[in-house]
Write a structure and sequence with these properties.
Layout lengths: L1 E8 L5 H16 L5 E9 L4 E8 L2 H10 L1 H8 L10 E6 L5
Antiparallel strand pairs: 1-3, 1-4, 2-3
Helix pairs in contact: 1-3
Length: 98
């Protein structure tokens, strides 16, 4: 299994809109990604940070999502709520799952 971790700073006062946009618009898109297993969306209202941890069957599935432009579509859907130059995406092999 492979995890894709994205962090971003949420614009002050936009946390509720970020969560609503994620739930209503981004979630249906993400669920269609090849090899997608599940995702966690984490927010911290004190620091205005958001983190998503998406799990894919393979690293190739995660890379395909990135190269197809689907990941960029998801970020664009959130562009009104996040500080775009703060978006960072990293990939990790899942070494232990309990």
């Amino acid at each position: 299994m492979y995890a894709s971790v994205t962090t971003a700073n949420i614009q002050p006062g936009k946390l509720d809109e970020f969560v609503r946009t994620w739930r209503d618009s981004v979630k249906p898109l993400v669920e269609s990604f090849p090899g997608f297993k599940n995702i966690y969306v984490l927010t911290n209202p004190e620091s205005n940070k958001g983190i998503t941890i998406a799990f894919y069957e393979t690293k190739s599935d995660a890379e395909r999502t990135q190269s197809s432009g689907d990941y960029q579509k998801a970020v664009e859907m959130l562009s009104g709520t996040i500080i775009m130059n703060s978006v960072v995406r990293e990939g990790y092999e899942v070494s232990i799952q309990i």
